[in-house]
Amino acid sequence: MASAVVFAYHNVGVRCLQVLLSRDFDVRLVVTHEDVPGENIWFASVKNLAAELGLAVLTPDDPNCDEVVERVRAAQPDFLFSFYYRRMLSPSLLQSPLRGAYNMHGSLLPKYRGRAPVNWAVIKGETETGATLHVMADMPDAGAIVDQTAVPILPNDTAREVFDKVVVAAEMTLSHCLPALLDKRATFKAQDLSKGAYFGGRRPEDGRIDWALPTFDIHNLVRGVTRPYPGAFSDTALGRLVLWRTVLLPARDPGLPTLILHDKQIVARCADGGLLRILDAELIGRALTPAMLPVALT
Fold first, then answer.
1. Is 207 helix (H, G, I), strand (E, B) or coil?
2. How many whole angstroms separate alpha carbon 170 and alpha carbon 18?
3. I want to staple 80 with a disulfide (CB 3.0 to 4.6 A). Which of 101, 144, 179, 278 is the partner?
């Protein structure tokens, strides 16, 4: 029976930990995070799962502190896995397992290395993304690829809908490559880092809409940061507008960016003349209605 120490968080952490247990791994230690006060916790809990299963669990502020490093070394794991854990792990931790340290990343590496890969893929208008298991290295998300699984991004998919697909892709990727890792038959493909880039974490302020952008880019921002994320917004003369769901319309209506009625539908006219049908929005904290129109957008 192979042994492992698992650093994990979020839905990917829950599902991938369950994959290891289904393959009879001896999970000797789980390291996860305490939930951040005030954060919208819409995802499953690795800490709760570990407690339910009677697994040893730590929730350190710093995973690279001496205490955690010693606990990991004392566990003498064959493998170390990181499944959506939010902190970089030190070389001391990465060198602890006998048979390597591996991370599950939520993109098709080498694209979208770094933070919030699903949100960025949607915002950038990608038509597919996925999950990649790779060797952990000193640089984040830069180690050799073990396996990856692609999923489609449809034109109106939200980041949450794509993330749900990526969770399944992560589960499939790990399930597919574990036998080869265990039997030492796994092959490793070096990444060509020039074919991708690093992206940083996103803040609520990054959801501000630039109405000078093409209509398609604005639509991608809306679906990339909609619930459970803070949302795409614009400050108008009437107060803050938050767009939660939009659909591209084939019609065009040249003019200044404005919220208007078009064929009895609330739409946003963008600077390039494109139209976005507004399916879900709030203005000054209230549901947007035709009675509030028109609203100038800047």
1. helix
2. 12
3. 101
The tokens describing 288, both together, are 């947007």
Identify the burial level of 63 via C-beta atoms within 10 angstroms of its C-beta, where 0-12 means exposed, 13-18 middle and 19 or more buried: buried
CA Rg, the chain, in Å? 22
> Which segments of the chain does DSSP mark as H helices, in order?
10-22, 46-53, 66-75, 91-94, 117-123, 159-182, 215-225
Residues 139, 91 contacting (CB under 8 angstroms)? no
What pLDDT, in 10s, does the model give residues 18-54? 999 999 999 999 999 999 998 999 999 999 999 999 9
Q: Whole-angstrom Cα distance, residue 203 to residue 189?
A: 33
Backbone angles phi, psi at 25, to 5 degrees: -65, 145
Cβ-proximal residues to 219 (8 Å cutoff; 6+ apart), any chain: 246, 247, 248, 276
